[in-house]
Amino acid sequence: MPNPWLDPERARTWTGEGRANNPLRQEQADVLLRLSAESHPRSILDLGCGPGEIGERFLARFPGAAWTGVDEAPEVLERARARFEPHAGRTRLLQSPLQADWTEQAPGPFDLAVAVQTVHHLETEEKHVLFARVLSVLRPGGLFLMSEPVQLEAPQLFGLYRALLDHARQRQGFEPLPPGYDLDAFHEQLERNQDRLETVADQLHWMREAGFGPGACFWRHGNRAIFGGARPE
Ligand SMILES: C[S@@+](CC[C@H](N)C(=O)[O-])C[C@H]1O[C@@H](n2cnc3c(N)ncnc32)[C@H](O)[C@@H]1O
Questions:
Q1: Domain annotation covers residue 164
Q2: Counting beta carbons within 10 angstroms of the beta carbon of residue 16, is it exposed (0 to 12), middle (13 to 18) or buried (19 or more)?
Q3: Fewer Cβ close by (within 10 Å): the C or N end of the chain?
Q4: Is 133 in the pocket of ligand 1 (CB under 6 A)?
Q5: Confidence at residue 168, expressed as pLDDT on a 0 to 100 scale
Q6: β partners of residue 67
Q7: Which atom, in ligand 1's list, is nearest to the CA of 121?
Q8: Which residue has the CA at smallest separation from atom 16 of ligand 1?
Q9: Is 116 in the pocket of ligand 1 (CB under 6 A)?
């Protein structure tokens, strides 16, 4: 599945901030940071780091930590490089598809691995391999947290998810969802963005299969979730 950010125009202009289709982004980032603090991170791996919006928040929140970002898209990494110039001594950027074996360049051990709005671009089989690789670069007890859009548990629930998204949009001052935004429109949007959503339950199960300890969903709003687990001690 080609990564849509390999399109230079998208890579140069994309920002996760202030987007109506994810009015919960700031809240999710806040929760992710709070959960991450539990791993007392001194080394952080950010998978699909993009232009570094989230990475910047990690650097500010954990001033002693070293941060490594992995992303495939050259123009996105260019933006991250410019953003992190003042922090060059504690940041590292690697260009690699997540499907490749990036662990040779980033062997860790990391206290914390995060992925924000990234893993859902991978095919199911690729997610299995990714989880095993993440486990291999975490220190024992190290934490892996994903903040991702996830699959609806059943299509019949779409109306309820839609109501929640609409509520969050309006609370943040965005336009209400258009009346035509139905299940078909939702699926078309996923196709357009090349999103491969999976349920939280499946992904937690695959993490266990990869060798992680018990995991959980720590935050959920509609089809947005923060979930993960730790490498056993
Ligand atoms: C929605 S952006 C999120 C960026 C960042 N995590 C954030 O939240 O600000 C998705 C990022 O994942 C990267 N990405 C998507 N598929 C990828 C893949 N197969 N390998 C490496 N990076 C990938 C894209 O290049 C893009 O930078």
A1: no
A2: middle
A3: C
A4: no
A5: 93
A6: 44, 91
A7: 16
A8: 3
A9: yes
Mean pLDDT of 75-83: 97
pLDDT at 211: 98
pLDDT at position 128 over 80: yes
Cβ-proximal residues to 128 (8 Å cutoff; 6+ apart), any chain: 206, 209, 210
Domain housing 76 = 4-152+196-230
Burial (CB < 10 A; 0-12, 13-18, 19+), residue 2, is: exposed
> Taking a C-beta distance cutoff of 8 angstroms, is the pair 142, 39 a contact?
yes
Domains held by the chain: number: 1
CATH number for the domain harbouring residue 15: 3.40.50.150
Average pLDDT over residues 41-53: 97
Q: Whose CA is nearest to atom 4 of ligand 1?
A: 50
Q: What is the pLDDT of residue 1?
A: 62
Q: Is the CB of 71 under 6 A from ligand 1?
A: yes
pLDDT digit string, tens, across residues 147-160: 999 999 999 999 99
Compute the distance from residue 10 Cα to the ligand 1 centre, in Å: 11
| Best residue among 14, 72, 99, 197 to mutate for probing ligand 1, ranked by most atoms within 8 Å of CB | 72
Q: What is the mean pLDDT of residues 37-58?
A: 97
Contact 44, 111 (CB under 8 A): yes
| pTM: predicted TM-score of the whole model, two decimal places | 0.96
Cβ(50) – ligand 1 distance below 6 Å: yes
Residue 76 within any structural domain of the chain: yes
168 inside domain: no
Amino acid identity at 42: R
Residue 138 located in a structural domain: yes
